[in-house]
Design brief:
Order of helices and strands: EEEEEEEEEEHEEHEHEHEHHEHEHEHH
Strand content: 25-35%
Largest sheet: 8 strands, mixed
Strand order of the largest sheet: 8-14-13-15-16-12-17-18
Number of strands: 18
Shape: globular
Helix content: 25-40%
């Protein structure tokens, strides 16, 4: 495919404007600057000769200069995937960041294949036994559900996710994908070594876009992890468990992108396309013809305000929500589940049985 060359004319924060004299690259095309090898993704067309793009590079954008040349081969942004991703840690492009060699995989588009016919939603009522009593009794999960762990800082969301990765690996239910979206580098490092110590890293693939990365990286690494989950579901024939920590940071990254592109914000400064951006990721998390993707997402609640627009947008996609309360954590009770504010669609006598439903109702009462 013929390469297209352009010139950077404007740099504003993590966004650039690039002029192409001979044809424009498509939306979501990956661009690379010739001098500093900085990476960008085309997100919109400004006029017949100019596109706007966001930075996806680890390099400091201050090194990129106006009038620097950019090249595009018109290939959509993609992540490298293969059956060898288990036990490894990657960036959003599928490049290893754990210091070990990795044979390059096959590129899979971050935004998925819209014409793929194998994806079909298959409703099911098979209960996922987590091994955590308060969850299995009062907020049971089903395979294929989207589950949110809501809470402010320091109430145990990440610890609960680590425990669930461990329990799923011990029960050999399937493979786990972990997406570290906008969280601390230390937490990602600790998780990697914890999984390695517990000997369950071999059943897990990790994708990271930490809080020091550009908003473009933080907004796209979630899509990389979803693409990896789809790949393992279809190619390995296994049920997949997708852990996202933290899905709220995904919404925040979208807000930052809207700001640097100069978009008029909506409520509380969020981008007007918040619900659309959230659906772009959430609607990809679904069952295939034979296997499922079950998603467990940590949701940071700013100032413990559950009416925050990003929290409300996330909640609309979930089948179950587990609220982790600070007043419970202060008593030394973990997981700090507020049983009266948590809920699950699976808490239904038609799904869990008459006896289970009766006991759960009595406990809540």
């Amino acid at each position: 495919m013929k390469n297209i060359h352009g010139t950077i004319t404007t740099i504003k924060g993590g966004a650039v404007e690039i002029v192409f004299e001979e044809g424009l690259p498509a939306i979501h095309t990956l661009l690379k600057s010739k001098k500093h090898k900085a990476l960008f993704e085309v997100v919109e067309r400004k006029n017949p000769k100019t596109v706007r793009a966001i930075a996806l590079s680890h390099l400091d954008l201050e090194k990129v200069e106006r009038n620097e040349q950019v090249v595009s081969n018109n290939e959509e942004i993609a992540v490298l995937l293969s059956k060898d991703i288990l036990g490894r840690m990657f960036d959003l492009f599928g490049n290893p960041i754990d210091g070990n060699p990795f044979e390059s995989g096959t590129p899979f588009p971050l935004y998925g294949n819209e014409n793929k016919e194998t994806d079909t939603i298959v409703p099911g009522n098979k209960i996922l036994e987590t091994g955590i009593k308060v969850i299995d009794l009062l907020t049971p999960f089903r395979l294929g559900d989207k589950i949110g762990f809501f809470g402010g800082a320091g109430v145990g969301k990440t610890i609960l996710i680590t425990e669930l990765i461990h329990n799923i690996a011990l029960k050999k239910m399937g493979y786990s994908i972990f997406a570290g979206v906008g969280e601390r580098i230390r937490e990602g490092n600790d998780l990697y070594h914890t999984l390695e110590t517990l000997d369950i890293l071999k059943n897990t693939a990790l994708y990271f876009g930490e809080m020091d990365k550009s908003p473009g990286v933080r907004a796209r690494v979630g899509l990389s992890s979803v693409a990896a989950a789809e790949f393992l579901r279809d190619e390995m024939g296994k049920d997949i468990f997708l852990f996202i920590d933290n899905i709220f940071r995904y919404a925040m990254a979208g807000m930052e992108i809207g700001a640097i592109l100069g978009k008029v914000p909506s409520e509380l400064g969020y981008q007007a396309t918040l619900d659309q951006d959230m659906a772009l990721l959430q609607e990809r998390i679904r069952a295939g013809k034979k296997n499922t993707i079950t998603s467990l997402q940590a949701v940071y609640v700013p100032a413990d305000d559950v009416t925050d627009p990003a929290v409300v947008s996330i909640l609309s996609h979930l089948d179950a929500s587990l609220v982790l309360a600070r007043n419970v954590a202060e008593k030394g009770i973990y997981p700090a589940v507020d049983v009266l504010r948590s809920h699950s669609l699976a808490l239904d006598k038609e799904i869990i049985g008459e006896r289970h439903f009766k006991i759960a109702s009595e406990v809540e009462a």
